[in-house]
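testing teh design pipeline on a random one, pls ignore if ur not involved
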């Protein structure tokens, strides 16, 4: 009974937090909206439902079984170190390895075809956090298995990281202008709306920054951290000839099947600035 109560309480808390973000981004928008909202949001939510189905049917059973086996066989970073330090290092390993995966989805053309579906959204807000191609979720499963195996994350550590990661993804996608100074202060630890707004820019030099989706330390470590850009000047989306066409739900889902038409442009490395 206690477990059910905690689960219900957690769901209620999550729903309240999501509602708070939706209210905040409308009360204090970070950037002006550029498109009709209802069709865009409906499409994003539909994609999110498909992705959640993939996670529940494929990813969760696999990673859950691996996390239990980590405990049983005492394997991975968490169990090599042991105790609280081991759990902390496993959490950090999970978060850092996602930074690597996110960069790969931009730099490897095949992965970019699917991740591009997330970036072609012309407005970045809370609903964008749900806009991923379901095949993008499938392709990430082998990497998620590597994350769990190497980190040695126990079910508890894995669920803690997943909860933090999900909360972070919704938070930093929101189109919320935080009170003065808050975004800069929070960006010393976690990914913020201003940070991720820069990452969603059509400008490749801006898009090739702020790849972290949890702790902001990894961008600082790799020199990819960027903050302070004029959010009103950021052009959200992808600069390729088919981007506007592919924002439609059906066209977006079909777009990875066709790598022509300049769709792979954002996967190219940034040119040196003169």
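output:
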């Amino acid at each position: 009974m206690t477990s059910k109560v905690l689960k219900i309480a957690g769901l209620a808390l999550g729903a309240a937090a999501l509602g708070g973000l939706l209210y905040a981004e409308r009360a204090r928008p970070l950037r002006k909206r550029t498109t009709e909202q209802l069709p865009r949001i409906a499409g994003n939510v539909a994609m999110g439902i498909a992705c959640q189905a993939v996670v529940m049917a494929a990813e969760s059973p696999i990673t859950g079984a691996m996390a239990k086996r980590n405990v049983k066989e005492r394997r991975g970073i968490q169990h090599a170190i042991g105790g609280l330090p081991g759990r902390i290092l496993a959490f950090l390993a999970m978060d850092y390895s996602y930074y690597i995966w996110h960069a790969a989805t931009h730099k490897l053309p095949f992965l970019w075809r699917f991740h591009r579906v997330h970036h072609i959204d012309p407005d970045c807000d809370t609903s964008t956090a749900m806009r991923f191609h379901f095949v993008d979720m499938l392709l990430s499963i082998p990497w998620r298995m590597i994350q769990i195996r190497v980190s040695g994350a126990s079910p508890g550590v894995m669920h803690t990281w997943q909860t933090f990661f999900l909360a972070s993804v919704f938070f930093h996608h929101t189109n919320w202008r935080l009170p003065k100074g808050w975004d800069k202060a929070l960006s010393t630890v976690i990914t913020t709306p201003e940070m991720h707004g820069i990452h969603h820019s059509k400008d490749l030099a801006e898009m090739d920054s702020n790849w972290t989706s949890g702790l902001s330390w990894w961008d600082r470590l790799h020199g990819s951290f960027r903050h302070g850009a004029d959010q009103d000047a950021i052009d959200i989306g992808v600069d390729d000839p088919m981007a506007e066409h592919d924002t439609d739900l059906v066209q977006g889902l079909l777009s990875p099947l066709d790598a022509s038409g300049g769709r792979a442009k954002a996967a190219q490395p940034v040119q040196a600035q003169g």
